[in-house]
Amino acid sequence: MRVKLGKMENRFLCVIGFLFYGCIEPFETSFVDFESALVIDGTITNELKQQEVFLSRTYEFEDDGPTAESTADVSVSDGEGNTYTFQHIANGLYRSEQAFAAQSGRNYELSVITQDGRNYGSDPTQLTATTSIDEISVERITDDQGQDGVAILVDSFDPTGNAKNYRYEFIETYRVISPTWNPISLEPAPEPGCEVIKVPNTTDEQICYPTSFSNNIILTSTEDLEEDRVSNFMVRFINRNNYIMSHRYSILVRQLVQSNEAYAFFETLNELSGSESLFSETQPGFLQGNVFSKEDSNERVLGFFDVASVSEKRIFFNYDDLYPGEPLPPYLDPCRPSSPPLINMGGRCVLRPLIENGAGIYFADNGEQGDNEGPYLVVPRVCGDCKELGPTEVPDFWIE
Fold first, then answer.
1. pTM score
2. pLDDT averaged over the chain?
3. For residues 260-280, average pLDDT
4. Distance separating alpha carbons of residues 85 and 96, to the nearest angstrom
């Protein structure tokens, strides 16, 4: 059984199957008594925004993926008479109809009623202590595996000592320059057949700004330290050969202060995501969160409803800041040109279909055309059109 828990990507993949059923020898890839359990992933924060909750269902190995729970009634109450209704957006994502920020001292509870009338809730949860990120820094290091790369480091300090438990997320945005972009492109000739013609390039983009999100559980605690201080904690390591740093890179780091219960849940979930935990001889049993069925105490409901304070900071850097004068990392694709013929030995078109379906893009004329070669050199589209990786619009937060 595999599961997807909202932003946590595949943290529950396989884990839940083993928690439900334990180890079986020999290992089988399907379960006769499969249980479709509701999966809840919701974190309400002290940011004034439309808050989000993710709902899905566990699924079996042979299925293509999780089933989104898309027809539920979702709401959050704050214990002060306020109830915030959530609307389904897409793929199990529910967003509050109005913006709100979690307030200190209030008991927030989640309510989920599915289309079949089943009623689910959460334990009352309060906002955690607020602690700001002091600094985000970048340092060139060699990691434990001997890889040369860049560490994104966080410093934080709570003089009151009330925070202690920290979870981190990040959003990274980077400039990509298409290595083989050309002002000329190919398109099918107007007449039927296998011919293609060169035209001015008005569709392919040279500079883009992709964005990607963290998909790991990143935790640290100061519980056993003399001070509630996070110092040089690494939230991201980027291998020096990763192309995302080539032309300019930015990362937004988000620090969430968690309750003891939330931290323990995410810590256990993170441990169970490792293969050694999954296939250990001793299985720990069902991973209990703070969500449950209001009608059937025996029904298993997965996930956690968290109310966390958030602090965030952004940093920019260039590859040359850390590797001055050194060659840039290799691009995502080696971009090796090929020269497909216009027509193959069987009389079928070769190059034109590649151009029509977008698989190939013009690189140059083939000046040394040989047998079974065409008049043009082409490369994969990602090499000459960065729209394959992300949008062309410069983000509002971007600075040079």
1. 0.85
2. 88
3. 74
4. 6
Place of tokens 């069902």: 286
Q: Report the DSSP beta bridge partners of residue 68.
A: 56
Q: How far is CA 151 from CA 143, 162, 238, 255, 398, in A?
A: 9, 27, 7, 17, 21
Distance CA 354, CA 179 (A): 20
Q: Is the pLDDT of residue 378 over 50?
A: yes
170: region left, alpha or beta (phi > 0 left; psi from -120 to 50 alpha): beta
State phi, psi for 40 to the nearest 5 degrees. -120, 130
Q: Where are the domains of the chain?
A: 6-128+261-308, 181-201+332-388
Measured CA to CA, the distance from residue 372 to residue 388 in angstroms comes to 29
pLDDT, tens only, 77-87: 999 999 999 99
**Nearest-angstrom CA–CA distance, 375 and 129:** 66
Q: Alpha-carbon distance 365 to 374, whole Å?
A: 9
Cα gap 345→229, rounded to integer Å: 70
Find, among 28, 16, 42, 9, the residue nearest to 272 by Cα.
Answer: 16
The DSSP code sequence of 164-225 is -EEEEEEEEEE-EE-TT--SEEEEE-SSSSS-EEEEE--S--SEE--EEE--S-EEEE-TTS
Q: Cα-Cα-Cα-Cα dihedral of 198, 199, 205, 207, to 10°?
A: 80
What proportions of the chain, in percent to the nearest 5, are helix, strand and coil?
10, 40, 50
**Could you tell me the CA-to-CA distances from 274 to 239, 271, 280, 332 in Å, in that order?**
22, 6, 10, 28
Q: Which tokens is 265 given? A: 């849940």
Q: Where are the alpha helices (DSSP H) in the chain?
A: 15-21, 260-272, 275-278, 319-322, 351-356, 381-384
Task: Show the tokens assigned to 380.
Answer: 């994969």
